[in-house]
DNA sequence: AAAACGGGGCG
DNA sequence: CGCCCAGTTTT
């Protein structure tokens, strides 16, 4: 059912008013610059906003301009990104900073077309920067916007995001007062009121305009997509000690935890014995078993067994003292490994 | 078109 | 412990 024309002119104003009255305070809304917004949008991809709010200030403080990040070492950005996941985003951000300096005179571009040339910037992020940072009348569709618009028109079955949602968002963008306010309002509204599982319809300023609410289908619209099945895998991490130093290796530039560091690790789709692990790592001594922990990702269920051993200072690895690990980019699973070793 | 890519918090 | 969540890139 298409949205009524009168609703298209009314909805933007209602949401803008609602947002100006109730918006949460986030640091990027207080210190509001295009570069700061670019960073917050990268950080917010597939990441809960509270996690972003905690981390954003330290990233912006260290890299206040695209130039400062372009000149920096990738490792330093990855270290600031520790625990946030999707580490490719951090490298995309640095690559974008470099491109901004090289092609756009160090200024974050203000058109969707130019923004789309930046690595890590897709249709949503380009629209978000153009509209929220620069006030360009561009639509945006993220998961929140998709859900809100589908519910208002009682549309189920569309993938996230759908062509229909983008068209609908475009029409609304033409009818809003201030695009910067409206686009943020649409997302904030989806996050705070029109939430996935528990939409607060009793407090909803759009209750009278919502086709899903009228037909009582707000809990089934939009249709959620089937989650992928998790593949079960086995990781064997060995904490190698030489005096007060520990061995580390850096992961490759593709795939899981790319460019992050880890203690020497064997990955397998089947269970391995400790001696098989020792052979694969080229360790002669017996491995001391410490513990096995479960680490769950969206697409993988990892059984992570942790061993330790005393060994020679092997040149195949990088060796770090315990108190120098703070600056080493480690994913959360590695922090767990070190905690198990430290507490043994 | 589908798969890959993380992690923390909450009920 | 299962479920949830402000996308983009690669295959």
Descriptive report:
The chain is α+β, with helices and mostly antiparallel strands. The chain folds into two domains: 5-215, Orthogonal Bundle (Endonuclease III, domain 1); 231-343, Nucleoside Triphosphate Pyrophosphohydrolase, CATH 3.90.79.10. 44% of the residues lie in helices and 14% in strands. The protein has 15 helices and seven strands. It has helices at 5-22, 27-30, 34-44, 49-62, 66-70, 74-80, 88-103, 112-115, 123-133, 143-153, 163-175, 179-192, 211-215, 274-281, 332-343, and strands at residues 231-242, 245-250, 261-262, 265-268, 288-296, 300-310, 318-321. Strands 1, 2, 3, 4, 5, 6 and 7 form a seven-stranded mixed sheet that branches. Helix 9 packs across helix 12 (179-192) and helix 10 packs across helix 11 (163-175). It is elongated and about 75 Å long. The model has no long low-confidence stretch (mean pLDDT 94). It binds a DNA duplex (11 and 11 nucleotides) through helix 3, helix 4, helix 7, helix 9 and helix 10.
Give the topology, please.
Blueprint: H1 5-22, H2 27-30, H3 34-44, H4 49-62, H5 66-70, H6 74-80, H7 88-103, H8 112-115, H9 123-133, H10 143-153, H11 163-175, H12 179-192, H13 211-215, E1 231-242, E2 245-250, E3 261-262, E4 265-268, H14 274-281, E5 288-296, E6 300-310, E7 318-321, H15 332-343
Parallel strand pairs: 1-6
Antiparallel strand pairs: 1-2, 1-4, 2-3, 2-7, 5-6
Helix pairs in contact: 1-11, 1-12, 3-4, 3-9, 9-12, 10-11, 10-12
The protein binds a DNA duplex (11 and 11 nucleotides) through helix 3, helix 4, helix 7, helix 9 and helix 10.
């Amino acid at each position: 059912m298409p949205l009524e024309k009168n609703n298209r002119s009314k909805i933007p104003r209602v949401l803008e008013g609602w947002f100006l009255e109730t918006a949460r305070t986030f640091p990027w809304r207080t210190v509001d610059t295009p570069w700061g917004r670019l960073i917050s949008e990268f950080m917010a991809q597939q990441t809960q906003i509270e996690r972003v709010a905690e981390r954003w200030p330290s990233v912006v403080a260290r890299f206040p301009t695209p130039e400062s990040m372009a000149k920096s070492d990738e490792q330093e950005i990855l270290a600031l990104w520790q625990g946030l996941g999707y580490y490719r985003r951090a490298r995309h951000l640095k690559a974008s900073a470099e491109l901004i300096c090289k092609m756009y005179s160090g200024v974050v571009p203000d058109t969707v077309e130019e923004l789309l040339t930046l690595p890590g910037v897709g249709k949503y992020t380009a629209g978000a920067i153009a509209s929220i940072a620069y006030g360009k009348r561009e639509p945006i569709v993220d998961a929140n916007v998709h859900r809100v618009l589908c519910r208002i028109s009682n549309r189920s079955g569309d993938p996230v995001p759908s062509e229909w949602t983008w068209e609908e968002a475009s029409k609304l963008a033409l009818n809003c007062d201030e695009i910067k306010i409206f686009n943020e309002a649409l997302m904030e509204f989806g996050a705070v009121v029109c939430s996935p599982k528990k939409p607060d319809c009793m407090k909803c300023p759009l209750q009278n305009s919502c086709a899903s609410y009228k037909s009582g289908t707000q809990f089934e619209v939009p249709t959620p997509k089937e989650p992928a099945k998790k593949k079960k895998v086995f990781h064997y991490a060995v904490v190698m000690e030489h005096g007060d130093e520990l061995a580390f290796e850096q992961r490759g530039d593709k795939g899981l935890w790319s460019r992050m560091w880890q203690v020497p690790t064997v990955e397998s789709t089947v269970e391995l014995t400790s001696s098989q692990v020792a052979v694969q790592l080229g360790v002669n001594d017996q491995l001391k078993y410490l513990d096995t922990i479960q680490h769950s990702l969206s697409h993988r269920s990892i059984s992570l067994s942790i061993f330790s051993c005393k060994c020679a200072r092997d040149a195949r690895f990088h060796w770090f003292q315990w108190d120098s690990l703070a600056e080493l980019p480690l994913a959360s699973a590695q922090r767990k490994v070190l905690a198990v070793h430290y507490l043994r």
